[in-house]
Amino acid sequence: MDGVILLHKPVGMTSHDCVMKARKILHTKKVGHTGTLDPDVSGVLPLCVGRGTKIVEYLLNASKTYEAEVTIGISTTTEDQSGKMVDKVPVIQTIDKQEIEQLLKSLQGKLKQKPPMYSAVKVNGKKLYEYARKGIEVDRPERQIEIYNMDLLSDIYDKEDTLSFSFRVHCSKGTYVRTLAVMIGEKLGYPAHMSHLKRVASGTIKIDECISFEELEQFHGLGQFQKGFLSISDAIKHLPKLVINDTLAEKVKNGILLSKTDETREMNQDDVIAVFNQHGTCLAIYQSYIKDDHLLKPVKVLI
């Protein structure tokens, strides 16, 4: 099996747990996930299988869409519902939907964001959560993220001197939605945390395309997938595409350099392009050759 399983990750499992379970079901060690989801978070978690593991980075870089709930009035150690309460300030003012909608719109665009202390980002070779568990606060490098869109999804409702509401956010990779929840609270003048989160899309993959582990076992037992599986070629259809003839296709399998064409001449060094044969199969991923700007070199040969 070579491709991408579109898993609907359940609550209570880490992304690594999901990889291990998929390996057992599929009887293969070649399984890798395409973006960590915390145990309390459910939703879209594509798993690359077989030769599909070669394209993990191209799915990791995809934008993400989440549906989240923020609770205003309480902050936690982890910035989400799993942490211990740090601060509680009763919300006594009236906050209406129009104010929240305007606030969410104000957060759209490019932002600077520090990763939470309870996260897997590494500082000086150690993951931040390792410092956090020992009560050590360290400087965290700011990252630039981008919020493409934020929309209010629910009414604003009271919960014991707090206010909560749900929103949908479409954002760049590396965005911490729980930190966005804290930022929303700060703009309203209150502590806050993310009280629920679900990933509803990863790149072009939507949650209604995904399958559970139970369905994965069923489909694998039948020897065919009715849904929830993408070939390598379909999984990277979001990349720029170059179609070549059969003669060149045979040479691409051996890692040949390709001459740039009119459609690839303006590629930058970091740009990549998916090279397909005339039958719709992706053969390799290419990028500009640093030693000769007129050529493309293979970075991943997929067959």
Automatic annotation (TrEMBL):
* Record field: transmembrane: none
Q: Tell me which residues make up the Pseudouridine synthase II N-terminal domain.
A: 23-177
The positions flagged as active site in the entry are D38
Q: Which InterPro entries match?
A: PsdUridine_synth_cat_dom_sf, PsdUridine_synth_N, PUA_sf, tRNA_psdUridine_synth_TruB, TruB_C
Keyword field: Isomerase, tRNA processing
Output the superkingdom of the source species: Bacteria
Class of the enzyme per the UniProt entry, highest EC level:
isomerase
Q: What is its EC number?
A: 5.4.99.25
Start and end residues of each tRNA pseudouridylate synthase B C-terminal domain: 178-218
Q: What catalytic activity does the UniProt entry give for this protein?
A: uridine(55) in tRNA = pseudouridine(55) in tRNA
Q: Name one GO molecular function term.
A: tRNA pseudouridine(55) synthase activity
Chain's role: Responsible for synthesis of pseudouridine from uracil-55 in the psi GC loop of transfer RNAs.
Family, similarity comment: Belongs to the pseudouridine synthase TruB family. Type 1 subfamily.
Recorded protein name is tRNA pseudouridine synthase B
What is the species listed in this Swiss-Prot or TrEMBL entry? Bacillus carboniphilus
Q: What is the lineage of its organism?
A: Bacteria, Bacillati, Bacillota, Bacilli, Bacillales
